[in-house]
Every structure is written in C-alpha cells, then in structure tokens.
Amino acid sequence: MIRHTRNPILTRTDIPDILPYLSDVSSVFNPGAIKHGDTYRLILRVQGRSRETFLVMAESLDGINFNVENRIIQFEGIENVKEKIYHVYDARISQLEGRFYIMFAMDMDSGCQLGLGVTDDFVRFTFMGIVSNEDIRNGVLFPEKVNGVYLRMDRPNKARHSGGPTSGSTIWLSESSNLLDWNPVAPLIHGRFHYWDEFIGSGPPPVKTREGWLHIYHGVAGHFGSSNIYQAGVMLLDLNNPSIVSGRCRCNILEPREIWELTGQVPNVVFPGGIIVEETDDEGFALPESEVKVYYGAADTAVGLAITSIEELLEASKEKSDI
Ligand code: BMA
User: How far is the CA of 288 from the centre of ligand 1 (A)?
Assistant: First the structure.
C-alpha cells in the first residue's frame, strides 16, 4: 500500500473542543469509514485529557481533507446499559440493507464487549444492544447476508501479550438471524507465532470481489520484547462459504515506518479500521482495477491514509505462504 502524501490526514489539532469532555485533545486514531453518495465519512476515536475515548464523526468530499464535527456521537438508548461504560472505541461501519451499522468496542468492568449502533442519516444514532457475551473485540459486519444469515468476524480476547492489553490469536466467523444474538461458526485464521502476525484481529469490513471476500486484518508481532509491532495484512474468504479461507498473505502489507507511526502514545502501530472501494459493478462486486482507500490509526495518536487497488490486495492475499 502507498501512503498518501498528505499524511497524517488527521491529528489532534484537527479536533475541535467539544465541552465539557473534549478540550485540547490528546489524540485521534482508529477510524471506521464509509462512502455514501459523494460523501466520505469517518467515525474517529478521539481521546480526551481524561484518557476517555469518544466517537466523533468527520466528513469529506475527496476522502483526504476531512472536517471534524463538533459533537460526540451519542447512541440513543446506550444510557440503558446497566454497567458503567468507560470507553467506546474502534468503530467499524458497514452498509447493510440500506442502513449504516456501527460495531464498536466497549470497555466495562466485565471486560471488553461489542456494541452495535445504527443510523440512517449520520445525524441520529440508535443503540441496538450489546452483541457479545464474552471478552471480545474487533467485531466487523459483512455488508450483506450470506446464505440467509448475517455474518461478522470477531476476535475473542483469550491471550495477552507481555505487558499489553488482552488480545487474541484467532479470528472467528460468527452468524446471527437478527444482528443481536450471535453464535460462532468457525475459526478462520490463527496467529502465526514467530512471524509478523502472532496476535490478530479484523480490520475494516470485508469487501465482496468476484474472487471472494477480501479482508484486511491487523497482526501484532510480540516477540521483540521491547515493543509490540502492529501491522496490516490481507486474507481471502470463499464467496459462498466464508468459513473457508482461500488465501492469506505471507508478509504484512503495511508496517510502521513513518515517524508518526513509530512514535506516539503507543509506538509502532498501524491499525486499519476503514476501507473505501471506489468502483463496484452492478451487482456490488469490487472492480479489480478500483482504487482502494484504507484508513488507519497510527501510534494511537493520528490517522493515516494508504492507497492500493483491489487487484493488488488480491495478489497479496494469494501470496504463497508456508509459514
Ligand atoms: C489494541 C486495541 C487498539 C489499539 C491497539 C494499540 O489492543 O486496543 O484499539 O489501537 O491495541 O494500542
């Protein structure tokens, strides 16, 4: 992937004060992304000086220069959750059956859960519920039902890298008939110990191509002792049976290299959460030559944009991998 020359496309100075919670914020990172009509939208993770994180929306007409809204996204109904929610973060946006669904992480005393929200207009956001019953993160909805059921990928937090937060080394496929109650279907990929993706988690929602569901994920190398290195990779799932993994890159496709990826609140992190495919055919399949914009968090401090194409991602997903 090629970094856009305008990077980092968003930093803390782009975030307006939103009193009383956000003033002279610490960081902005890990965006979800969607394009609707001509408008690109990001849902940003903004961290205030209290170290709480909030979701804030940004809009753009070119996908590069974003205006950040001066309000925190409030999901109507989230106040009915009995337990205290400390942070909401890492939103992934999927357009599904004409509505926009936002799946995000919620840090609570019971651990990290997944919340689901929905909006039709990006003005009013409704909380649908907590859609997990174990410590879990990185939930991403497929943009359509497959074989009559809703699907998502998620990553149970069953491992911990030394000195780090709870993490996991298996991405699962889960299914649901109503978007609220989810059951695991099959493990998709496991972390590859000793290599770049020892701990893993889903990135942006999967993209429908004629060759299968193309999916960018993040991998963490934890074996360097001093620091966990977050990178991005790509895999391919069978179109009609996404529990079959038909390809997976051997090498990462993006790793921390720029100073704003190498240093910051959490050093050595690129964390993709948003993908925009510019061209699709009449049946919604991404065109091979289509430009792809990938939005990612950098060092838990800023937002980066990398450019690639569907065919380059497909090629990487088919890399011979004997590791
Ligand atoms: C992960 C998540 C991400 C974060 C990353 C690096 O476990 O918490 O939100 O960007 O760690 O700190």
Answer: 31
Which residues contact ligand 1 via a Cβ below 6 A?
Answer: 30, 89-90, 165, 167, 230, 266, 269, 271, 297, 300
CA distances to 141, 145, 168, 248, 307 from 191, in Å:
21, 27, 8, 12, 26
The Å distance, Cα 200 to ligand 1 centre, comes to 11
> Do 83 and 108 form a contact (C-beta atoms < 8 A)?
yes
Q: How far apart, in whole angstroms, are the C-alpha atoms of residue 204 and residue 198?
A: 19
Q: Which domains does the chain have, with CATH numbers?
A: 2-317 (2.115.10.20)
Rounded to whole angstroms, the Cα distance separating 273 from 216 reads 9
Residues 6+ apart with CB under 8 A from 183: 174, 175, 176
pLDDT of residue 164: 65
| Best residue for ligand 1 mutational test, from 230, 255, 265, 295 (most atoms within 8 Å of Cβ) | 230
What are 51-98's pLDDT values in tens digits?
999 999 999 999 999 999 999 999 999 999 999 999 999 999 999 999
- Residues 142-191 have pLDDT tens digits of 999 999 999 999 998 887 766 666 778 999 999 999 999 999 999 999 99
Q: Is the pTM of this model over 0.90?
A: yes
Using the atom order of ligand 1, give the atom closest to the CA of residue 167: 7
